[in-house]
Specification:
The complex is a heterodimer.
Chain A (H helix, E strand, L loop, with lengths): L4 E3 L2 E4 L5 E6 L6 E7 L6 E7 L2 E5 L6 E5 L5 E5 L8 E8 L9 E2 L3 E5 L1
Parallel strand pairs in A: 2-11
Antiparallel strand pairs in A: 1-3, 3-8, 4-5, 4-9, 5-6, 7-8, 9-10, 9-11
Chain B lengths: L2 E4 L3 E5 L4 E3 L1 E4 L4 E8 L5 E7 L5 E3 L5 E5 L4 E6 L8 E9 L8 E2 L3 E6 L1
Parallel strand pairs in B: 2-12
Antiparallel strand pairs in B: 1-4, 3-9, 5-6, 5-10, 7-8, 8-9, 10-11, 10-12
Classes of the chains: A mainly beta, B mainly beta.
Amino acid sequence: ETGVTQSPTHLIKTRGQQVTLRCSSQSGHNTVSWYQQALGQGPQFIFQYYREEENGRGNFPPRFSGLQFPNYSSELNVNALELDDSALYLCASSLVASGENIQYFGAGTRLSVL
Amino acid sequence: AQSVTQLDSQVPVFEEAPVELRCNYSSSVSVYLFWYVQYPNQGLQLLLKYLSGSTLVKGINGFEAEFNKSQTSFHLRKPSVHISDTAEYFCAVSRIKAAGNKLTFGGGTRVLVKP
């Protein structure tokens, strides 16, 4: 158990809808990263939040957006859902100290877009 | 930019036999190296990490990995596998001491342990 919790565990949406995924970071961690894992592939970095600001972004369109709250929890929002957005979305929390940035993952939210 | 290649997409192995999962990386800067395991319908669990020091790293569940800078490799080994080691294994890298380190993952190696 890493102490990183994600909700919901599963979600079904239709194309064009919007979705919000939530993540509670491990106690003491100040950074949250989001990853998309398509079926049969490795996770791909979406973005990272540190001190409530975006701190690095992968190759994802602007319809993927996020928030980090003062308690370091985070949300991932995806607008105008497309079929290819179907994936496991993983949240990872870490403590940015000494540059090590070891990331601990939650169990993920499985999103299906029909 | 960094990239990670896991040379085997699937590795079948008999119980109590040894296993080696191969990982090669490419980076223009120094990196940290990680192996994560993903059991069915679960998130990623950190197996082990190389940050600095000894190039032979021991992790959880009897796994170990060796960092080879000249060959840019970080292969994972276990001398005797159990049925419970059936899972997908991911090699990952991140830049050293860079704020906002993202993890760059390989495509994964699926290990199937047979009785």
